[in-house]
Amino acid sequence: MHIKFSKVEIRDLSKAWVAISIAFAIALAGGIIYITPDFSFLQNIIFAAVTVGVGFLLHELGHKVVAQRYGCFAEFRADNTMLLVSIVTSFFGFIFAAPGAVMIAGRVSIERNGKISIAGPLVNIILALLFMTLGLVINDGFLGGLFAFGFFINTWLAIFNLIPIWILDGKKVLAWNKWVYGITVAFAVALLILGQYLPLQSLGF
After folding, report:
1. In angstroms, rounded to a whole number, what is the distance separating the alpha carbons of residues 18 and 35?
2. What single DSSP character describes residue 30?
3. pLDDT higher than 50, residue 86
4. Which of 88, 84, 85, 80 is nearest to 31 (CA)?
5. How are beta strands 73-78 and 100-105 bridged, if at all?
């Protein structure tokens, strides 16, 4: 299946990726932007872009791929206001991130909507497993920290998006299949708990 992207969508995905990466880099630095001789802030941007940024980007593409497979129009649109909010809140050491969403148009049943919705959290779980595996192989230095952060942030992204409220994925997955919802949530939570006992580099989690 050929995945279709418009110029507007590529622009919005890029904009959201950059904004989220900067916001998390600021939060990781304790709400301060400064360039030091060891380039720690630039390292934070790399951390955020590869872990949170990739997790966000592939999460949204997971929704898009499944929706297009069902013949729906599906394109990501950034929320400029929420991108600004994420950067502003990062200066206080935390982030309220809702960078945008995949806009879907077409005939979608409850089942299909549930499958489209669960694709995003499943992508984050797969990424978490990938980062965990890499983190067990390399668990010190810059890469060790990156892999550990990638594991924990993608696990949290999966769990957060599975909360069955508002416009989050969990609400639509639960409406489709309670068993699938329960198993996915249980696996994500178990993965997070397991991560506390694995020899991953400590990042203060």
Report:
1. 18
2. T
3. yes
4. 88
5. antiparallel
Q: What pLDDT digit, counting tens, does each position of 33-76 carry?
A: 654 545 577 888 888 999 999 999 999 999 999 999 999 999 99
What three-state secondary structure class fits 22?
A: helix
3-state secondary structure of 118: helix
Name the band, by pLDDT with cuts 50, 70 and 90, for residue 18.
very high
Is the predicted pLDDT of residue 162 greater than 90, yes or no? Answer: yes
Distance CA 79, CA 13 (A): 10
Taking phi first (over 0 means left), then psi (-120 to 50 degrees means alpha), and beta for anything else, what does residue 39 get? left
Catalytic center residues: 60
Alpha-carbon distance values, 80 to 77, 89, 97 (Å): 9, 14, 11
Q: What helix, strand, coil percent values describe the chain, rounded to 5?
A: 65, 5, 25
Q: Looking at residue 37, what is its pLDDT? A: 45
d(CA 118, CA 105): 17
Mean pLDDT over the full length of the chain: 89
- How many Å apart are CA 119 and CA 62, to the nearest integer? 5
C-alpha span between 35 and 15 (Å, rounded): 22
Average pLDDT over residues 176-197: 96
User: CA dist 123 to 39, 75, 172, 188, 190, Å?
Assistant: 31, 17, 17, 11, 16
pLDDT at 141: 86
Q: What is the spatial distance between Cα 187 and Cα 106, in angstroms, rounded to a whole number? A: 31
